[in-house]
Amino acid sequence: MAGFQVHAVTALAISASVASYATAWHHFPLTWGLSLGFLGLVGGLLPDIDSGEARISRYSALIFGAVSSLFVYLFYQNIWAALLLFVPFAKGIHYALTTWTTHRGVFHSVPMCVLLSIGAYYGADLLRFPHFYALYCAAFLGGGYLVHLVLDEIWSLRKGISKHCSFGTALQFFRRSFWPSFLATYALLAVVVYYTPFLRAWVEQTIRGIY
Ligand SMILES: [Zn+2]
Question: What is the rounded radius of gyration, in angstroms, for the C-alpha atoms of the chain?
Answer without folding.
Answer: 18
